[in-house]
Write a structure and sequence with these properties.
- The mean pLDDT is 88.
- The chain has 218 residues and is of the alpha+beta class.
- The longest helix is centred in the first third of the chain and has 21 residues.
- The protein has 6 helices and 10 strands; from the N terminus they run E-E-E-E-H-E-E-H-H-H-H-E-E-E-H-E.
């Protein structure tokens, strides 16, 4: 916005703004007393100012050109082509007091200094074992699922992952725009709920050196 510069900008005032439009491909949902309305953010001339607009345009291109191709191959594409994904969410849940002792974890979400973990992922007891009530992790994950369910986000499974203190949620497959919106909300809920159980949720893709990282596999 040129109005913030000492001498203004080169655009007319009506061209300087960003514009919101509702994304009708992703459902509106309610959390607490707040309504969340998925939207896109574009400039006056239609340039994308967000990360969702390019996705919607890619979906449109996929539908248009994919339908042409499949029609030429003799397939019925009258219902169009859509992209479905199911973004699983892997996380580390660690003791919050230990988390506060590590400025690198607080600032970056991953360890930057220190020795490697004395125990890696070569043993399968964490991955293969059922979630236990011996730690707050199970209760934390149950509440995360409950809160997400109230917003219409079905996290179908919860289980341990390969690395120590690593866990995973997996949703149902759905339209890619909806899945991405819901995954962003899921990550926010995970961080907020974990704090109430004395845990810190690490969402960075590689929080610890030489042990399994956290993916978002489809």
């Amino acid at each position: 916005d040129g109005s913030s510069y000492p001498n203004g900008g080169l655009r007319g005032t009506h061209e300087a703004g960003g514009y919101l439009a509702i994304d009708t491909s992703s459902p509106i949902f309610l959390r607490g007393d707040t309504i969340f309305i998925p939207a896109i953010f574009v400039s006056y001339h239609g340039a994308a100012l967000d990360e969702k607009t390019p996705l919607l345009r890619a979906n449109h291109a996929l539908n248009t050109q994919g339908s042409r191709l499949l029609s030429a191959l003799g397939m019925d594409v009258s219902s169009g082509i859509i992209a479905n994904i199911g973004l699983e969410q892997e996380i580390f849940l660690i003791n919050r007091e230990e988390y506060y002792r590590r400025p690198d974890l607080q600032m970056t979400g991953r360890t930057l200094i220190g020795a490697d973990a004395p125990r890696g992922q070569e043993m399968c007891d964490h991955y293969m074992a059922a979630l236990s009530t011996a730690t707050p992790a199970l209760a934390c994950m149950q509440e995360i699922q409950d809160q997400c369910w109230l917003m219409g986000i079905p996290l179908r499974t919860r289980h341990r992952e390969v690395a120590p203190n690593q866990y995973e949620f997996a949703p149902y497959f759905g339209l890619n725009t909806t899945q991405i919106d819901q995954n962003l909300v899921v990550m926010q809920v995970i961080e907020e709920v974990a704090a109430r159980y004395g845990l810190a949720a690490l969402l960075q893709e590689k929080p610890f050196n030489n042990v399994n990282g956290s993916g978002k596999h489809n």
